[in-house]
Amino acid sequence: MAAFCDLHKNNYTRAVIAILLFHLIYYPVIAAANIDNNYGGFSAPLIRINFKNPPLHSRPKHHKSGRRLIGPDTPQATLQTDPDKQDGHLMKLSVGTPAFDIYLAIDTGSTLLWTHCQPCQTCKETKHGMFDPKKSSTYKDVPCSAGECKILGQFEQDDGYCKDPKDTCRYYFEYLDTTFSTGVMAKETVTLNTTSGKAVTLKDILIGCAQEQKGATYTDDEMGIIGLGGGNLSFVSQIAPYAGGKKFSHCFVPRDTDPNIESKINFGKGSEVVGEGVVSTPLLESRGDAYMIEVEGITIGNDFVPFNSTGTTMLEMRIDSGTPKTYIPQDFFHRVATQFMKTFDTVDSKLDSFISDDEKYDESHLCIEGTTIPKEPKVAINFKGGQKLQFTGEQIFFPNKDLNLTCFGMSNTTSQGLAGDHYGIYGGNIQRNFLIGFDLDKNVVSFKPTNCITNGGGTD
User: Taking every annotated instance into account, which residue ranges of this chain make up the domain Peptidase A1 (predicted)?
Assistant: First the structure.
């Protein structure tokens, strides 16, 4: 679910400085969850879903909350994804007392945990029903005077919100595809089952209770989003003091794995990615909720294709679990594609050069006929500082049985409406069969080639 922050190119206004100060002042307030069982770190299963018609999540264009930190030249777009494979994950949680089960799409590209709540006439009610706050004894509205509401940006008292400090804090997110979600902010008890079979209870978790929804398309199970971004409102930040640190890791199983096999997510202590084969790179600071990394170039076979010929400019890529494909700027993509086609012809003369079929895909896609995944050429991403991460064919290609095509898993950002010549998206498919750890205390992300079917990391 792609979005970008480009703070370093903009002059800070007083409003921006105010929001940054609120992030610092109110962090201890919002990290107020209690783990009753006091396990420290824990792991949870992730349910794989089939985004046949993927939800059109994108960076909100409505400048309320921390998203106002985005500059006017920040790239924004709604991404269309590969049509027929499992590219998303749901996390099952329970909210309220008594507990009510909800299924939320995990998203490293956003911060807020929100779910549909009654009454909501425009929300699509799933087969699991809808959470009713009135039936929960632990539900508490968040007032406008609360620090969490100030971080959300509602302290400006515009649009009729928060004219009285005692009013209930509201959120409103409008997306570029005209989708919007609006509702109230609350604190609630959240319970989840770990992979060890033990339940973890988290008190006073900040959630968004959606009362109006328009435009989004969901699966029959999805009931909202659990934001795993780096912001102080995120689930990761809220539980950090009680889970053993502001860190988490996940291990997504391959796309064609048995549907009954789940992926895995690990929080806090025990989620560290260590051992032989680990490749680490710094997370860029001052990028809001986004997990941004710097890339020097891409290696095709034995040939390195630099992002910038002088080496003075790095490609900034957002690690995004909600966007299956990987996107790079048009000029860079053209050079990568040219080298790929050149190398591909030399390693396998039985296959024709990669083709672009405008009737099936736009010009940003490189595809071959058939659904056999090529073993060559090898593709790797070179991070700033020389670290190189190698991909397998399953991670870099998208087979499509309906079209009898296998497509290269990278496309250009321009074809998707993304502006900017030094931004990209590190998509979900190349994250599969890697244990990927985000350590926000150390500001680093680590990748370890892993069989996610048998070993998803964590303490369980």
Answer: 89-448
Q: What is the pLDDT of residue 71?
A: 27
Q: Which residues of 61-80 are buried (b: 16+ CB within 10 A; e: fewer)?
A: ebebbbbbbbeeebbbbbbe
Q: With bands split at pLDDT 50, 70 and 90, how would you rate the model's confidence at 235?
A: very high
Q: Which of 256-265, 295-304, 354-363 has the least mean pLDDT?
A: 354-363
Most confident region among 12-21, 182-191, 217-226 by mean pLDDT:
182-191
> Has this prediction a pTM greater than 0.85?
no
Q: How far is CA 154 from CA 86, 184, 356, 414, in A?
A: 37, 12, 47, 34
In this structure, are residues 91 and 106 in contact, taking their beta carbons and an 8 Å threshold? yes
Nearest by Cα to 113 from 185, 163, 18, 62: 185
Separation of alpha carbons 100 and 133, rounded Å: 10
Beta strands 315-319 and 423-426: pairing type?
A: parallel
Q: For the domain with range 279-449, which CATH number is right: 3.40.50.1000, 2.40.70.10, 2.60.120.20, 2.40.160.60? A: 2.40.70.10
Q: Which residues pair with 367 in a beta bridge?
A: 355, 407
* Fold category of 7-267 in CATH: Cathepsin D, subunit A; domain 1 (2.40.70)
Q: How far is CA 437 from CA 237, 273, 444, in A?
A: 15, 6, 8
* Nearest-angstrom CA–CA distance, 351 and 406: 12
Q: Can you give the residue ranges of every domain in the chain?
A: 7-267, 279-449
Cα–Cα distance between 324 and 396 in angstroms, integer? 11
Instruction: In whole angstroms, give the CA distance from residue 211 to residue 134.
Output: 13
The sign of the torsion formed by the CA atoms of 312, 313, 319, 324 equals negative
Q: How high is the pLDDT of residue 279?
A: 97
Kindly report the backbone phi and psi dihedral angles of residue 242, in degrees, each rounded to the nearest multiple of 5, phi listed first: -110, -10
**Fold match flag (7-267 vs 279-449):** yes
How far is CA 403 from each of CA 159, 298, 344, 406, rounded to the nearest angstrom?
48, 28, 21, 9
Phi then psi for residue 173, to 5 deg, are -120, 125
| E-assigned strand segments in 194-291 | 199-214, 224-227, 247-251, 263-267, 279-282
Q: Rounded to whole angstroms, what are the CA distances from 364 to 164, 264, 361, 416, 453?
A: 51, 32, 8, 9, 32
